[in-house]
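thought: fold this chain, then report.
action: predict
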Amino acid sequence: MNPYEVLGVSEDADEETIKKAYRELVKKYHPDKYVNNPLADLAGEKLKEINKAYDMIMNKNTQAAPTGAPSYGAGRTNGAASFQNVRILISQSRISEAIAMLESLPRTAEWYYLSGRARMQVGWYDQAISFLQTAVNMDPDNIEYRDALENIKNRNRTYTTYTSSSGNAGCCNPLGCCTACMLADCICPCF
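observation:
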C-alpha cells in the first residue's frame, strides 16, 4: 500500500497538505454518514485504510511498504508502542492492551482521542467524553476528533431522551434490563 496514493497526495506534499487531504477523506468516509447504509462496511474499511496511511506518513518510526508490495502484518501490531498500533488494537477490541500501550506514548491530541475511543468501545462514556473533549480542545481543526465527540454526545442525548420519555422513571421493562445499566455495570432499579 502506498499511503500517499491512499490520501491522494504527492510524495513531496507538505504536512499541511497531507493533513488537509486526511481530514477531507475522514469526513467523506466517516461512519456517521453511512448509518443504515449498505456501504457502511466498505466505508469503515476505507476509513481504516485512510487512518493507516496517515499514520504511516506522519509517524517517522513507521516505514511504508513499497508501492505494490503487500503490507506486512496487516491487522497485527509489532508490539512497538505507536498510535497506529493502538488503532489496530482498538479495532480488534483489545482495549486493555490499547490502553496499556497508550501509557507509554506522549500525551498529544491523538493520545487523548484514542484514549476516548478505547473507553467509548467498552461503554465508559463519561471518561470517553472527557478524553475526546481534551483532544478537540488541543486540535480543534481535526474533523475525526470532533466527529467522535459529537457522535458520543448524540448517543448520550438519545439515551437520555429515550429513558426520560419511557414513563418508568428512566428505566426499562422488567423483561429486558436497559443496555445502559448493563454497560455501566450498575443495578437496574426494575428488579
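thought: worth noting. Confidence is low (pLDDT under 50) at residues 60-76, 160-177, 179-185, 187-191.
final: C-alpha cells above.
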